[in-house]
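re: ur question from yesterday

yeah so i grabbed the chain u mentioned. its 406 aa long if i counted rite. heres the sequnce exactly as i have it in my notes:
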Amino acid sequence: MRRIWQIAALNLRLLASDRAAFLWLLLMPLVFTVVMSLAIGGGGGADSGPVRYALTVQNLDEGPRGQSLLDAIAATDEIDLLPLEEDEADAERLVAEGERSSALVIPSDFSAKLEAGESATLLFHRNPERMNPLATRRSIDAVVARLNIETMIESAVPDAYESLGRSLDPSRADRLVSEARRSIEEQWSRPPISVAAETLGRPPRIDVPEMGFSHFSPSMALMFVLMNGLFTSVALVGERRERTLARLFTCPIRRSEIIGANFAWRFLVGIFQMWFLIAVGAFVFGVDWGDAPVALGFVTVAYVAAVAGLSVLIGSTARTERQAESFTLVSALTMCAMGGLWWPLEITPRSYQLIGHLLPTGWGMDAMHNIVSRGYTAAQIMPQIFALLGFAVAFTVAAVLAFRHE
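ran it thru and got these C-alpha cells back, copy pasting raw so excuse formatting
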C-alpha cells in the first residue's frame, strides 16, 4: 500500500506543476456551465422571449368552430401549430411511433355538435417517451375553457330572457352574445380570481428536469471529470512506451500496485475537481444540490471511480499516445451525448435511454437528476450507485488483466 501512495503522490506533484492543466480542470467547466445554461436553459435575458412549443394539429372539421379553436391556440405565447399535411399519416400513429411528441385532433363533427347544442370532444395524443411540456396542455385547456364559456353564453342569454318571461328577437340576442364575448375576451387576461402558487420544500418528482444551471452544473461537472480523467490515460501510455514502468518493475512491485497507484491519483484529482465544481454551483450559480449530502458523496465517489478505472484501462491497452488521445476523444464525446449530459435522457426515445444506460454517464446523470431535481435520498439512488461501482470494478479488473509495462 505504501508503494501505491508513493507512486500516486509523485504523479500528483507532476500534475500540480502543470498550470495549464488547471485551466481544463477548473476554469473551462465553469465557462461551459454558464454558456450552456444561458443558451439552452432560457437564461438569455429579457429579450429572449417566452419559450414556445410545437403542437401537431389535425383539423378534420369542415365548419368554422375548428378553425376558430386553432386560431385561439395559435394566439397564445406558448404554442406553435404544426398542421398535418394531406399526405401525412394520422396523428395518432405519428405520436405512437415517436415521430411527434403530441398532437391535437379536431373531429369532423366538432362544429356540427356545438351548433346543435351537443358536447364535442377533442383528442389530445401524447407520447410519454417524448417531452410533452405541461405548458402545451395548459394552453389548450385555457383556450377550451374560454371557448366553453363563449359557447354557453350563446344559449344562456336567450334562456335568461325566457326565464324572466320576456321575448328576445334574434338580432338583439346576437348583439348581446357578441358584447358578452368581447367582454370575456377583455377580462380573460386579467381574471377577477387568480391563484398564487408557492412551492414549499422539494417536489417528490419532476419528470423532466429544468434546462438551466440545475441541469448543466452537474452535467458539465460529470463531462469534464470524464474528459480530463480519460485524457490522463495518455500519461500511462507514455510511461509504458518510454519504458519508465519497465525500470520500475526491476523493483519488488506487483502489476496490481502499478494499476492501483494510477487509479488512486486519477481518483483523487477527479474528486477534487468534482467537489470544486459542486461548490461553485452551489455558491455562485445557486444550484440546490438536494437535502442528502451523503447521497451526493456516494454518487461522486462511484462516478469518479468508474472514470478512473476506464482511464487506467485505456492507458493499459493503447499502444501509442495518439491512439489513446483518439479513443479518449471519441469515447468521451459519445458518452456525453448518449448519457444525457448535453440534454436530459428523459426527453429522448426509450431506445436512446437504453443505450444511455449502457454507459456510466447515463447512470451518473440519472443519479444527479434524482438528487438535484427530485430530492432523492441515498437509499433511493442505490441502483445508480451500484451500477457505477460495477463499471469501476469491471474497468479496473480489465486494466489489471490487460496491463503490459512495455
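noticed a couple things. DSSP finds 16 helices and four strands in the chain. also Residues 7-41+210-402 form one domain.
anyway ttyl
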